[in-house]
Specification:
By secondary structure, the chain is α+β, with helices and mostly antiparallel strands. Helices cover about 25% and strands about 20% of the residues. The termini are far apart.
Length: about 450
């Protein structure tokens, strides 16, 4: 029988959590309580994906796998709703349900998703074919948001794909994972030897967890530590649709809420009110499926679209210009924390608004990155040690004076500047210009 897997992967943030992520006070107790509550639950199989897969194959039911960071409060609301909301029962009854609480043993050839999200879902057939992905930055930003409409739409859309399988298998080819340098997180050098495949229930269980965001961090480090450029898809992974000017409704499958004027989406002919049916030939189940297509797109690409407008379907083409991915906003991603250690010496950089630039006598086209904060420990103290201060404004870096965001700095320097390099930087400090050297790490 046909089968799909839903993997809901919620990144586990180590204490202290980067980017101010809020956690419960008793992290260890919360994890053990979840195990006590869920391991004998009538619906959920606790922390055993293989058992869930076996039961799904035997029953012919789909398999739903939730990976939840128990200590982290991000997306607590939607997690609680999935577990307790009775309106979800008719959908959940169609699945074998599994709850995973760590990423240690994930097969990275199967589980390729947005590792920075606190809530992600993947859908598979029992033969391993990926049906689609779901993730929610809305829930990630608001841990008490328990709305389930978008999630329900994704489940229903995945079921529709499942009903059409295997006749639709060719259309799913682009949804499949690609070859990665490592098979599991515990094979990645910075994690290998520190973590095992199983959690240490006899010791400090939280400290034995590989957290989802650590996968991206470790893969970036694997390139950086060898003095190699970090691939752009690991610097700006799973770009949100807004990167190409497309605003999608969070409570629908892929409904266009708005299109930014002058953007690639606008130039493609997309309009507010359109529904995206497929992208790059792939049927869509959520806005995250759009991010996956963008994630797998090269520097320049023409992506075929099928849209529904006014009750009828038509074809469009989304053309991605050179350098489109540099416009990705990475500021809210957990992964930006480690990249700041590599590139900005721990500084958080914010592109100044035009009115603030005018006060400093700077043009809209010029570089003006405000040092919002300076790190204090380890790699993140490198900028402080080099003389950078909070409220400095970077106006030149490595000879570049044109306007750039922090994300563009990440992309350029992680590909062009290797560890050990000292990058000439000029900052405005009050009414003075100060020349400094920013260390690459």
């Amino acid at each position: 029988m046909k089968l799909f897997v839903i993997a809901l992967l919620i990144s586990l943030l180590p204490a202290p959590c980067p980017l101010g992520a809020e956690t419960v006070k008793d992290r260890e107790g919360a994890v053990r309580k979840d195990k006590e509550t869920m391991e004998n639950d009538a619906r959920w199989i606790f922390n055993d994906f293989a058992l869930g897969m076996e039961k799904a194959k035997q029953s012919g039911k789909p398999l739903l796998v939730v990976l939840r960071c128990i200590p982290c409060k991000a997306c607590m609301g939607i997690d609680a709703a999935i577990l307790g909301e009775k309106s979800m029962d008719p959908l959940l009854d169609q699945f074998v349900c599994v709850r995973l609480i760590n990423a240690n043993a994930l097969d990275l050839t199967q589980f390729q998703f947005d590792y920075d999200l606190s809530f992600s879902t993947m859908f598979f057939n029992g033969d391993g074919t990926v049906y689609g992905r779901y993730g929610s930055w809305t829930h990630h930003k608001d841990p008490y948001n328990s709305t389930l409409t978008g999630y329900q739409r994704a489940l229903e859309a995945a079921l529709a794909i499942h009903r059409g399988y295997p006749a639709n298998k060719a259309a799913l080819a682009g949804k499949q994972g690609v070859e990665l340098p490592f098979r599991t997180p515990t094979e990645i050098p910075t994690l290998a030897g520190k973590y095992q495949r199983e959690l240490d229930w006899n010791g400090q269980v939280v400290a034995s967890c590989v957290h989802c965001h650590m996968i991206g961090d470790a893969i970036r480090s694997s390139y950086r530590d060898k003095g190699r450029p970090v691939p752009i898809e690991w610097i700006h992974p799973m770009p949100v649709p807004e990167t190409v000017g497309l605003l999608l409704a969070p409570d629908q499958t892929a409904h266009v809420d708005d299109v930014m004027e002058g953007s690639a989406a606008a130039q493609s002919g997309l309009k507010k009110g359109d529904d995206l049916v497929s992208m790059a030939g792939q049927p869509l189940i959520s806005p995250t499926d759009v991010s996956w297509v963008l994630h797998r797109s090269p520097g320049q690409a023409s992506i075929p679209l099928v849209i529904r407008r006014g009750g009828s379907e038509s074809n469009l083409t989304l053309t991605l210009p050179s350098g489109w991915r540099l416009k990705t906003n990475s500021a809210g991603r957990v992964g930006s924390w480690s990249m700041r250690g590599m590139v900005t010496g721990g500084m958080v950089l914010v592109d100044l608004a035009d009115d603030e630039r005018a006060k400093l006598g700077l043009k809209p086209s010029e570089l003006a990155l405000l040092v919002k904060s300076v790190g204090q420990f380890g790699k993140h103290a490198a900028a402080k040690k080099a003389g950078f201060e909070k409220n400095d404004v970077i106006v030149e870096i490595d000879g570049m004076k044109n306007r750039m965001t922090e994300g563009e700095i990440f992309a350029r320097f992680l590909q062009e500047q290797m560890p050990g390099k000292m990058v000439a930087t000029t900052v405005l400090r009050g009414d003075k210009r100060v020349d400094l050297k920013l260390p690459m790490q």
